Amino acid sequence: MQNYLKKHLSLWVLFVIAFYACDGKKTTSASDNQPKAPVNSLTDTPSKTPQKPNIIIMLADDLGWNDVGYHGSKIRTPHIDKLTKQGIELDRFYAYFSCTPSRVGLLTGRYPGRTGLSGKVIVPNRKDGLPPEEILLPEILAEEGYTKRACIGKWHLGHSNIKFHPLNQGFTYFYGHYGGQVNYFTHRRRQELDWHRNYETCYDKGYATTLLTNEAVKFINESSDDAPFFLYLPFNAPHTPLQAEEKYLKLYGYDPNEPPFSETDPSAKMDTMPDIKLGQGNTKRQTYSAMVTAMDAGIGQILQALEDKNIADNTLIMFMSDNGAYPKSGGSNRPLRGHKGQPLEGGVRLPACIRWNEGLPQNAKMEKFFTYVDVLPTILDMVGRKDIAHQIDGKSVYADLKTPSTKAKKSDEFEYISKNSIRQGRWKLVNGELFDIQIDPYEATNLKKRKKQIYNRLKKQLKIAKAEIETNKKADLSFEIQKEWKMPSD
Fold it and tell me: Distance (Å, rounded) from C-alpha 263 to C-alpha 379?
């Protein structure tokens, strides 16, 4: 009897083991119990390709090199600093030196000169815009399953005809303003309301940065789990007019009993009068700082929305400025030389970062040159799109982002900057001067005479590139702004 019980007890134990082994539960091996390295460490990237990420591009307007906390600025940007630390700091990110051209290159992957938009920005009476035949990032992402594609913020790529509207350039939703330099409180420029939702005039009240943030959070919250989304968020902050909410001004010592600063910029007066003094602090730098911190707070809310929806890890986020700051408007590019409107480092080398927890390393820094025209091919590479049928100028840096290095790699490729500037690796020709920006990022020592062969090589290449890229199309300034900035259909 005892032997019988032992036998059947053994059979019962074997049956229980077999049952649980077949019950869909994962069994472990010796290797499973070994400690695993963090997936996003500097030495390891995910072994399995993640699903296509949500994509968010956040663009600051006229934010200088010395206007973020992680560069040592006194301006408080805790959320931008945290985003940069969590992702990859792009120490050598470059764009054009003014608003409209940078947006063209960012969204098309092509130099703005090819579209005739490398000169002045789209001013209120400018008739041309980004040609509809240009293929934009959202149009290609639509082919990759990105069904919701929003532009929330400052468009600045044409407003004289409905063909230039974001909804006719690949986006499925638009909220914000068509032109630049709108009043942050009244949303007016040239005394006409420039605030819209899709094609319709929008009468929302509030501070512009807050409204754009709220709309971005709403877009994220309403996004579907069935398909990834693309959010292009070009803030108008901290571009002029210099206007901030009092709660942020007080962070920088604002005293309401002291007079506001005096605005001397004639275009700012013309565009925003009679409401120019709304939100003005005691100094320009104080007001500018408050505007940057307000934008940073909005970025914090957007990042929190991703966490709350549990989609932060598979959301690819890029943050950058469109060009350098203009010191007379409160910004700072120190210690870099130059400013907005110039191809010197202070006008084109910008604070920028990228974060994608499931696909890229964290807490890293990359010294490789990464330019605004590289953004489109890099993002497409990340979502698995390898072939681009039309000609672009940018190149994917996805491979470099997967193994970022703080050492600059040698490169013999030419990088066209503007009509009077070109770079080849460490050598930069700008305004007839030659600099080794690898060891002289402040462009203090002109090597034109000492490096004649290099100087002549870059000068020749600049002439070739300019002839091939620039259309030299003259801007048509005959447009008259419509009531409430409506875009005509004919």
Answer: 41
- The amino acid present at 427, given as its one-letter code, is W
Name the maximum alpha-carbon separation found in the chain: 107
Report if residue 20 sits inside a domain. Answer: no
- Alpha-carbon span 387 to 384, nearest angstrom: 9
> Omega of the bond prior to 35 within 30 degrees of 0, cis?
no
Question: Whole-angstrom Cα distance, residue 1 to residue 49?
Answer: 59
In-domain check, residue 228: yes
**221-227: long-range contacts, CB 8 A cutoff, minimum separation 24:** 221/305, 221/309, 223/54, 223/148, 223/309, 223/311, 224/147, 224/148, 227/145, 227/146, 227/147, 227/148
Range of the domain at 297: 54-411
Whole-angstrom CA distances from 56 to 209, 236, 353, 354, 411 are 17, 16, 12, 10, 30
- 352 burial (CB, 10 Å; 0-12 / 13-18 / 19+) is buried
The C-alpha angle 220, 221, 226, rounded to 5 degrees, equals 80
Q: What is the pLDDT of residues 29-58, one digit of tens each?
A: 333 333 333 333 333 344 344 589 999 999
String of DSSP letters for 349-403: EE-EEEE-TTTS-SSEEE-S-EEGGGHHHHHHHHTT-----S--S----HHHHHS
Nearest Cα residue to 379 out of 217, 154, 140: 140
Decide if 171 is inside a domain.
yes
Q: Buried (b) or exposed (e) across 91-116, using 16+ Cβ within 10 A?
A: bbbbbbbbbbbbbbbbbbbbbbbbbb
The C-alpha atoms of residue 314 and residue 304 are separated, in whole angstroms, by 14
Identify the three-state secondary structure at position 301: helix
What number of residues does the chain have?
A: 490
Question: How does DSSP assign 186-241, residue by residue?
Answer: T-EETTEE--EETTEE----S-HHHHHHHHHHHHHHT--SSS-EEEEEE--TTSSS
Phi and psi torsions of 479, nearest 5°: -80, 140
Q: What is the distance between the alpha carbons of residues 490 and 482, in angstroms, rounded to a whole number? A: 13
CATH number for the domain that contains residue 248: 3.40.720.10
pLDDT tens, position by position, 244-264? 999 999 999 999 999 999 876
Structural domain includes residue 424: no
The number of folded domains in the chain is 1
pLDDT tens, 151-195? Answer: 999 999 999 999 999 999 999 999 999 999 999 999 999 999 999
- Give the residue among 80, 93, 102 at the shortest CA–CA distance from 180: 102
Q: Is the dihedral of CA 472, 476, 482, 488 positive or negative?
A: negative
- Residue 217 CB partners (closer than 8 Å, separation 6+): 301, 302, 305
Other Cβ atoms within 10 Å of 385 Cβ, number: 16
